[in-house]
């Protein structure tokens, strides 16, 4: 039985507006989903403007990808959401394209990007003082079923996210609030890491020219 406080449509609309206000869902990109206690999935439809997401922009689907209710096409990347639900205990999967998550993927070595140590790592449930997180990075593919299989192979239960080169990030959590916290923490770490590199490079350049 679905608990009375499970409100997938309003939850997705609220989270969508928040992420769109950050500028993380540009040009109708990105997709968001929630898994119900009965294992069915609520997901944004393809091409929806996330800033003004309406109830009719959300489809109800079976775990195997059959549309149970709603009009229009589900997100092009639905197969990835369903695959993540199959192999994790997540009940929320959020996917966004940002300049920072695309840039940070360029710094991957051996298929991972290393982030931290930084206080923000705690928001990703790692409490060791010098914790570093190794976020998996995969090449992007147009074949969603193949991409979904590769993502499942690379998922690390201790690292709630996976990056796709020249594309974006998938983040998942045991609740919508957790997935949102993880996503905000990842994006903070990406910007911090990128800006730190830029400042370091600038310092080196100024030092080289005897300006500092
Ligand atoms: Zn995408």
Task: Give the topology, please.
Blueprint: H1 8-21, E1 31-35, E2 41-44, E3 58-61, E4 67-69, H2 78-87, E5 92-96, H3 99-105, E6 112-115, E7 133-138, H4 144-154, E8 161-164, E9 168-173, H5 176-208
Parallel strand pairs: 7-8
Antiparallel strand pairs: 1-2, 1-5, 2-3, 3-4, 5-9, 6-7, 8-9
Helix pairs in contact: 2-4, 3-5
The structure holds zinc ion.
Zinc ion is lined by residues 29, 77, 95, 97, 167-168.
Gyration radius, in Å: 18 Å
User: What is the CATH architecture descriptor?
Assistant: 3-Layer(aba) Sandwich
User: Helices and strands, in N-to-C order?
Assistant: HEEEEHEHEEHEEH
Portion in beta strands:
15-25%
- The helical percent reads 25-40%
- Which homologous superfamily in CATH is the superfamily? Class II aldolase/adducin N-terminal domain
CATH fold category name: L-fuculose-1-phosphate Aldolase
Number of structural domains: 1
Number of strands: 9
Number of helices: 5
Q: What oligomeric state best describes the polypeptide chains here?
A: single chain
Q: Which term fits the overall shape?
A: elongated
Low-confidence stretches: none
User: Which whole number gives the mean pLDDT?
Assistant: 93
What's the level 1 CATH class?
Alpha Beta
Overall description:
With 212 residues, the protein is of the alpha+beta class. It has a single domain (8-210), classed as L-fuculose-1-phosphate Aldolase (3-Layer(aba) Sandwich), CATH 3.40.225. It is 35% helix and 19% strand. The chain is built from five helices and nine strands, in the order H-E-E-E-E-H-E-H-E-E-H-E-E-H. A hairpin with a 5-residue loop joins strand 3 and strand 4 (67-69). The termini are far apart. The structure holds zinc ion (ZN). Zinc ion is lined by residues 29, 77, 95, 97, 167-168.
């Amino acid at each position: 039985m679905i608990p009375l406080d499970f409100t997938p449509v309003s939850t997705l609309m609220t989270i969508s507006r928040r992420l769109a206000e950050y500028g993380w869902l540009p040009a109708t990109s990105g997709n968001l989903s929630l898994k119900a206690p009965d294992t069915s999935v609520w997901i944004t439809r393809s091409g929806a403007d996330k800033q003004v997401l309406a109830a009719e922009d959300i489809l109800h689907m079976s775990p195997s990808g059959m549309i149970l209710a709603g009009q229009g096409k589900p997100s092009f990347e639905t197969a990835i959401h369903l695959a993540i639900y199959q192999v994790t205990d997540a009940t929320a999967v959020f996917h966004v394209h940002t300049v920072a998550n695309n840039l940070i993927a360029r710094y991957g070595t051996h298929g991972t990007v290393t982030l931290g140590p930084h206080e923000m790592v705690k928001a990703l449930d790692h409490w060791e003082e010098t914790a570093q997180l190794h976020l998996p990075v995969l090449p992007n593919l147009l074949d969603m079923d193949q991409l979904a299989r590769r993502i499942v192979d690379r998922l690390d239960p201790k690292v709630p996210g996976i990056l796709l080169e020249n594309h974006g990030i998938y983040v998942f959590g045991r609740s919508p609030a957790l997935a949102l916290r993880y996503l905000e923490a990842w994006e903070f770490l990406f910007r911090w890491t990128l800006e730190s590199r830029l400042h370091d490079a600038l310092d080196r350049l100024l030092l080289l020219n005897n300006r500092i």
